[in-house]
């Protein structure tokens, strides 16, 4: 780009040269069963990406919630079957899942220590296996060690396979503020093994459905209609329906990141955070006893009802959406929504201020104008939002 020259008087001038370049980002997102079956070449081929001149060094960090003994044995067997391509640097490191691993930087520091002690360099691979919180924490460690180490995500929950696993963000909490310390760092690859889903507790499996509903409501009416049609199959975890739900949800999240015009979130709009301003606050109010997906379901119901009250969404669509959420086993109310602060203000509404601080700039909330179409607004009427909460509470009573 040409220099921009601004003259000030006869003797002074300011020269501004704009540095401009682009860096292409691309990584595979695979859906598979039996990822560590020795006969399946996907993992080895993903690591090598055609480079057969050396053995590629890998180190695993695994969610403690998984069957570590069986998983470690499968990984070792796989590497023994692919010794020409792969080298296992050390035994896996295990870390707690959920908000514990994201509570502060302590676990990230342990990961960095392991990366350092094992001599993992920028041409080695750190592979994270676990739920979204573990992927977030490992992603932060790999993004900062050596200014970036190749990182492979293997999501093991519905929520991480259909949403967070395919994203380009990672973060942990700091001084009680959710996702305060983080980076934008695309992974080397995302490998979704559907076999992990059958090991999940029912509650965890149901909670992950909320993000599929969210992205369908803001981006794909046909997918939303498919969710309604297949509510019974999804609620009973029929493999064919569950796999389609995960793949389509992941595709929609990927499309928004790649083509939404703001992959690194430099603006204030966060369409993929539909229903999240209250969800994040509700998680904090319940000390994370409410799962993220459960909180998102309540946030979706709340913002959907508000969309109707604000005249954006036709009357009756809120009822329809709530029926879907409830049909999948998701609640749309929690008693913590009634909590108030010292000034008597509903604590959940403080989440609006915290969400704006997180976004920076103007408050921007995604609401609905129709099924499959999100719309951004910059103001929220607290009185209307309280009415929306009352509507949800009344449903819970009945």
Secondary structure: elements and pairs:
Layout: E1 4-8, E2 12-16, E3 29-32, H1 42-48, E4 56-63, H2 68-81, E5 86-88, E6 93-95, H3 99-102, H4 106-117, E7 125-130, H5 132-144, E8 150-155, H6 158-162, E9 169-174, E10 177-184, E11 189-193, H7 202-207, H8 209-219, H9 221-229, H10 231-235, H11 239-259, H12 276-285, H13 292-309, H14 317-327, H15 347-359, E12 365-370, E13 373-377, H16 382-397
Parallel strand pairs: 3-11, 4-5, 4-6, 4-7, 7-8, 8-11
Antiparallel strand pairs: 1-2, 9-10, 12-13
Helix pairs in contact: 4-5, 8-9, 8-11, 8-13, 12-13, 12-15, 13-14, 13-16
Characterise the protein shown here.
The chain is an alpha/beta fold and 398 residues long. It has 2 domains: 29-199, Rossmann fold (3-Layer(aba) Sandwich); 202-397, Dehydroquinate synthase-like, alpha domain. 44% of the residues lie in helices and 18% in strands. It has 16 helices and 13 strands. It has helices spanning 42-48, 68-81, 99-102, 106-117, 132-144, 158-162, 202-207, 209-219, 221-229, 231-235, 239-259, 276-285, 292-309, 317-327, 347-359, 382-397, and strands at 4-8, 12-16, 29-32, 56-63, 86-88, 93-95, 125-130, 150-155, 169-174, 177-184, 189-193, 365-370, 373-377. The strands form 4 sheets. Strands 3, 4, 5, 6, 7, 8 and 11 form a 7-stranded parallel β-sheet that branches. Helix 12 packs across helix 15 (347-359). It is globular, with a radius of gyration of 23 Å. The protein starts with a strand and ends with a helix. 40% of the residues are buried. The model has no long low-confidence stretch (mean pLDDT 92).
């Amino acid at each position: 780009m040409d220099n921009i020259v601004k003259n000030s008087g006869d003797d002074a001038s300011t020269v501004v040269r704009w540095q401009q370049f682009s860096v292409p980002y691309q990584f595979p997102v695979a859906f598979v069963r039996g990822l560590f079956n020795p006969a399946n070449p996907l993992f080895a081929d993903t690591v090598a990406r055609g480079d057969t001149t050396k053995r590629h060094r890998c180190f695993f960090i695994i969610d403690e919630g998984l069957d570590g003994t069986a998983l470690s044995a499968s990984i070792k067997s796989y590497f023994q079957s692919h010794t020409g391509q792969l080298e296992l640097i050390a035994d896996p490191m295990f870390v707690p899942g959920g908000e514990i691993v994201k509570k502060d930087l302590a676990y990230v520091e342990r990961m960095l220590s392991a990366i350092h002690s094992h001599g993992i360099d920028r041409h080695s691979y750190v592979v994270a296996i676990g739920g979204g919180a573990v992927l977030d924490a490992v992603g932060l460690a790999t993004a900062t060690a050596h200014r970036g180490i190749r990182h492979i995500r293997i999501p093991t929950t519905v929520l991480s396979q259909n949403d967070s696993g395919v994203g380009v963000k990672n973060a942990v909490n700091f001084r009680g503020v959710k996702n305060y310390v983080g980076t934008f760092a695309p992974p080397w690859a995302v490998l979704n093994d559907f076999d992990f889903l059958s090991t999940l507790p029912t509650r965890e499996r149901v909670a992950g459905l909320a993000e599929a509903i969210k992205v369908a409501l803001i981006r794909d009416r046909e997918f939303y209609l498919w969710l309604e049609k297949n509510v019974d199959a999804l609620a009973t975890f029929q493999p064919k329906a569950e796999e389609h739900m995960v793949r389509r949800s992941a595709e929609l999240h990927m499309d928004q990141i790649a083509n939404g015009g703001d992959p690194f979130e430099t603006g204030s709009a966060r369409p993929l955070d539909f229903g999240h301003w209250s969800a994040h606050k509700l998680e904090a109010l319940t000390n994370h006893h409410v799962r993220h997906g459960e909180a998102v379901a309540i946030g979706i119901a709340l913002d959907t009802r508000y969309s109707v009250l604000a005249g954006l969404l036709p009357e009756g669509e809120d009822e329809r959406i709530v029926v879907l959420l409830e049909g999948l086993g998701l609640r749309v109310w929690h008693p913590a929504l009634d909590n108030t602060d010292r000034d008597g203000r509903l604590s959940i509404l403080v989440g609006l201020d915290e969400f704006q601080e997180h976004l920076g700039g103007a408050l921007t909330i995604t609401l609905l104008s129709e099924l499959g179409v999100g719309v951004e607004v910059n103001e929220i009427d607290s009185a209307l939002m309280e009415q929306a909460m009352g509507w949800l509470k009344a449903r819970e009573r009945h």
